[in-house]
Structure formats: C-alpha cells, structure tokens
Amino acid sequence: MTSSTDRSPFRSAFIALIGRPNSGKSTLLNNVIGDEVSIVSALPQTTRGSTRGIFTTNTMQLVFVDTPGIHHGRHLMNHAMLQDACRAVADDVDLICYLVDLSREYAEEETAAADLVRSIKGVPVLIVFNKTDMTKRVDDAVERFHRLFPDLATLPSVRLSAVHPDAKKLFLASVDPFIPEGPRYFDPDELTDSTMRRIAAEHIRKQVIAAAGNEVPHATFVEIESYRETPQRHEIIATIHVETRGQRGIIVGKGGSVISRIKKAARGSIMNLAGVPVSLTCHVKVSPRWRDNKDFLRRVGVDWGGVMPHQHSDEASGVPPGQKKNLSRC
Ligand SMILES: Nc1nc2c(ncn2[C@@H]2O[C@H](COP(=O)(O)OP(=O)(O)OP(=O)(O)O)[C@@H](O)[C@H]2O)c(=O)[nH]1
Ligand SMILES: [Mg+2]
Fold first, then answer.
1. N or C: which end of the chain has fewer CB within 10 A?
2. Measured in angstroms, how far is the CA atom of residue 263 from the centroid of ligand 2?
3. Of 145, 178, 211, which one is at a domain's C-terminal end?
4. Which pTM was predicted?
5. Domain span at residue 215?
6. CB–CB of 197/224 below 8 Å?
7. What ligand is nearest to the CA atom of residue 18?
8. What is the pLDDT of residue 5?
9. Can you tell me the distance from the alpha carbon of 113 to that of 128, in angstroms, rounded to the nearest whole number?
C-alpha cells in the first residue's frame, strides 16, 4: 500500500548561511551534515570561501552554502571573502539564514551583516539566534538585537545552540516551511561538492590555526601544488604561504617541530577522508603581502571582484575611498 508520504513530491532548496565572523555558521552546517565539511575554529574569519554541505533524505535535499563571515578587512583577500558572502546571497537561493551570535555585543560587524540582510529582495530570511548556551539572558539579547535593528524584528527566527545535538532537529524544522518542490541535485551519499584538493588545503589550514593561534593564520594561505590520486594512495604537495620571516619561524617551529605536528595531524585527517594512505609534503614560503597581491590571488583562484589594490588605501576602515560602508553595494 502506498502512503500519502510516498506520493508527496520531492523537495529541495539551496540555503545560504550568512553572518558576522565567528557566529557559528560552519558549526551549524557541520552539525546538520554530521561531518566536518567546513572547518571550524575559535578564530574569526575561519571560512575563506563558500563551501557547500549537502543534506539528503528520502523526501528532500538541502544544499547549504556556508559563507565567509561578513567583515571589512583592509586586504584584497578580505574583500574577496566579502564578495563571496555577497555572491551567495545574490545567487539563486531559496532561503537565507542569518546567524546572530547572542553571546557577544552587536558591534559594527553586526550592522554590516544586518545591512546585507536589508539589501536582500525576494528571498526569505530566517534569523538563527545562535549560542544560546553561552548567553545568560537569551530574551534580553534578542530584545537588544530587535531594538538595534527594528526593521528585522518581524523576520521569522529560531533560537539554538549550534554545538548542541538538538540544534539539527530544531533548525531543520525551522527551514522546512521554506523548502519548495524540486529535484535532487546531488547523489544522496554526497556530503559536499568540494574537491579533495580543496578539502586537503582546508585540513592543513585548520592545523595551522590550531598550532599558530591569533594573527598568523590570517596571514596564511595553503596552496596545493600537486594532488596525485591513485586507488592505493594520495600524494599531496602543499605550500603554506606566510607574509613574513617571523611567521615562517612560528609555523616551522624549533627544529621543524611545529610543521611536523601540522603535517602529522593534517595527514591523519585527510587519510580518514581518503580511506587510503596519504603522503603529505608541506613547504613553508614567505610570500610578502600575498593578501594584496592580485597575481597571487588570481593564481590560487581567489576572486576579489575586480577591485583594484589602490582602492584599498583606507587602512583604517578597509573601505575604498569615497565608498560608503554599505554592504548592499557589494
Ligand atoms: N558554545 C558554543 N560555541 C559555539 C556555538 N556555535 C559556534 N560555536 C563556536 O564558535 C566558534 C566559531 O564557530 P564557527 O562555526 O567557526 O563560526 P563561523 O560563523 O563559521 O566563523 P567564520 O568562518 O569565521 O565566519 C567555534 O569555536 C565554535 O565551536 C554555540 O552555539 N555554542
Ligand atoms: Mg565558518
């Protein structure tokens, strides 16, 4: 006998996750997918480019687009990250989830994120008030947000803690009304559309963040020079670019101790994913000012949106001269 559920049409949606750095976008994505498809760290600006996580059941498929945190940095690289978040919103998505970190003061970055949300036309927005577990008075924090951004007070919202196992159920129930009838875009066993090359670079960067802390990771770019894949073995050669000799010293460590740790941990996690032995070679190279070097960024596939370096002369704000700090322009 066929039940009514069997007859219901398949549904699918593209859902963008946006918000200020460190608001928990990647954590929520990983919780829903049940795997680390996007790296997470306590450091803001962890996600550098859009990353898709795919969640499939018998009746629906959700393609989540994790984006870099919305912030105005002074480098071309920061601009590229901002462009990436803006593109995700401008793309043909069915829903935008705006993550708000309740545990911190709503500073300038929140205003920038709210500005971007205001600029969205024709796509529903769901506010995800996150980190309820770290927030003493959740009601007060939500009320403060609504006082600051009264025009966003009418948007649908959910309150959760992305690190909590319950968050998945709560979040999926909140997005459910927004999922239209649609096709299955990806195979049911696919969790991400990222390539092994990109995943490997992210796993190495995650270990750099863990080993180096604070500012060094922002000045780090992991480039995969070669990725050779056979059924028996993956052979990876990577270059970790940093901006100064001092940063190189930190990443290499005394007698190469730090880079050895980074390599060992990254190799282990890549091997878990690959399911075969992995050999990993990591070079550490000083590439001065790579974050503002157009040729470098072009070579490694970072799209900064065509903004010329001289437009980034406003060191204090990171905003090109004469341009208002308004994300709706991005
Ligand atoms: N306690 C707690 N920690 C959280 C929660 N959500 C995220 N975190 C932590 O917050 C930090 C940042 O999380 P991410 O998921 O990397 O944040 P993000 O928004 O992706 O950050 P960017 O990629 O930098 O934009 C990590 O240390 C997470 O473990 C939460 O609900 N509760
Ligand atoms: Mg992230």
1. N
2. 22
3. 178
4. 0.91
5. 196-286
6. yes
7. 1
8. 52
9. 13
